[in-house]
Amino acid sequence: MRDLSRPARQGREPCPHPVDEAAGSRLSTAPAQTGAEAPARAPTRGPGHAAAGLFSVAILWVIAFAALDEATLRFGAVLAAVVIVTQTQPATFARAPWLGRVFDAALLACFAFAGWWFARVTDQLWTGFFVATPATLAAGIGGIAVLLILAGRAWGRSLVVMALAFAAFAFAGPYLPRPLSHFGTDAGEFVQVVWYSFDGVFGRMTGLVAENLLVFLILGALFEKTGAGDSLIRISTALLGRVRGGAAHAAIAASAVFGMMSGSVAANIAGTGVFTIPMIRRQGFSRNFAGAVEAAASSGGQLTPPIMAATVFVMADLLEMPLILVIAAAALPALFKYIGLFAQVYVEAIRQDIAPLPPEDIPTLTARDWIDSALVIGPLVALMGAFLTGRSPAMAGLAGVVVALAMGLILTPRFRRDPRLIWQALCAGGISSARILLSVAVIGIVLAVINETGIAIRFGIAVAGFGESHLFYALVMAMLGALVLGMGLPTLPAYLIIAIVIAPAIVEAGVAPLAAHMFVLYFAVFSSIMPPVAYGCYIAAPIAGADPLRMSLTALRLSAVGLLVPFVFVTAPSLLLVAGGFSWAELGATMLRLLAAIWMLATALGGADPRAGRLVPAARAVRLALAAGALMPMAAIWCPTVLGAAIAGLGHPRPRPPVLRGSGQAT
Questions:
Q1: Measured between alpha carbons, how far is 667 from 648 in angstroms, rounded to an integer?
Q2: CB atoms within 10 A of CB 373
Q3: Phi-psi region of 613 (alpha: psi -120 to 50; beta: other; left: phi over 0)
Q4: What is the pTM of this model?
Q5: So where are the chain's domains?
Q6: Which residue pairs, CB below 8 angstroms and at least 24 apart, start in 457-460?
Q7: What is the band of 146 on the pLDDT scale with cuts at 50, 70, 90?
Q8: Which of 22-36, 81-95, 456-470, 521-535 is most confident?
Q9: CA–CA separation, 612 vs 432, rounded Å?
């Protein structure tokens, strides 16, 4: 067991960028094969890191002091992203390295030419008198091509393939079968809508991300550099180590908070998984299970309020709701998702007869440890205080950055002695911001095509017509669509595309808008562990030394309750607390049903009864009854739930004291 006595000062050297570290040392080929949320190659140090650090400084400066017009802000942010990605993830040619530099220089020149024309016609764009010419057409095509090339370099093929598929759909409209057919477009109209309008690459979503969300990526990088992540792991281990499967429980708790702050499943796994996965393995869990726990918990961090990986701000903007209401709505679903994950881990510990952590591996918390907890609590309090006083998301993020920096300087001697760590955090935040901006800019191509062709409206009408009499099947269709559209994409771009395409269809079927958007967000997040892409598992697999596809199946089993919860709050919206028609009676009944479902799913899928404290083999019929009863909360049905619980009670013998391997006592 590594020394956990003073992680903030004696822990490993924090990596400049957790995603980059994971990709560079452990995942050099995965993105090219899977489209995973990891860079295709490790970034190099040099001008790119300097540009990334300056980009972070510019973001903070604009929030605090400056006011830029929307066109300048959006194009400037995307331009910075292009420069940073070309410099931190340069093109490489094995036989002629100089060709890579020439190719990247050509990309920058092409984008500069496209930007020059964009600036020239900005006034025409605002007045609506823009007319495409051969020069503007060539510039727009060049700018779009640069974005696609760099997005493929940063995120893998899946995002680029999706954008090209929608572009092909825009041109092929007249030749498509009836449900998909439309008037089509030509090159001039396509470039005008995608590049020269404020509905495409430089549209509303790019502006929202540039104005409000990038500061949270800087906060996540600073959160790691101050040692807050190590402090969180230490406290979680001390509090949960005495529970069976305590190392896995500690990993879940740490990943929930770290993932909420980092804004990336990949960064979460790389930042905490290098500690937690070996710790889970040492307790006796299999390699596959250890990696699956980290992948499932890290994906769930994107659903944890109040930050929710910055997706909460996009949702509040799309719904035109106060931010605090969206945060409140996310609280109980996230809680039950994590209760389900804890229950699955506990049952697995019983099934494998794994004892709690030995006393020598459980750190003893001191007054200093509780003081160091301010590294985590301080920024969160600052954020919530800013939200409650009505500040904008950008100002709330700036407050969190200032407090995180102050806590690091006060509480972490190494951070105080080495100012380079602040610069490294700014560089890491700038690189994350650049990559996210590229993905959102490419998603702008998709959104422009959707708006121009009206395909989302037709899809919504079709699902709504089906959902009038079969809402459950309409939700299953929406779930499958969300999982497919979100595969290989980071959380924010995945939610954006799914919210535009699928959420309106669910609303048309009769679901409350807040519940519909929360529904698609959950499945956008779970796409990170959905095979065959399962990019979260591809990042965890090299750390655990396990097969990523087998790990993804285990992660899905562990996340069974999380897959159930969205269906529950659609049928019982009181679980969201702020949805229309709130009822205390419905909320109480729903919570009881969910708790029963968690117990039954854990028993049915894990093969052990948590009441017995030891492995109790159950007949196949009993486990099937438990699984069936656990699914009934989706329809708010009591009888099968009670029947399943009764069968479970009759199907197991009386519990006996556990016989444990290792030291410690079961809790």
A1: 22
A2: 18
A3: left
A4: 0.73
A5: 7-207, 591-667
A6: 457/504, 458/179, 459/501, 459/502, 459/505, 460/504, 460/505, 460/507, 460/508
A7: very high
A8: 81-95
A9: 47
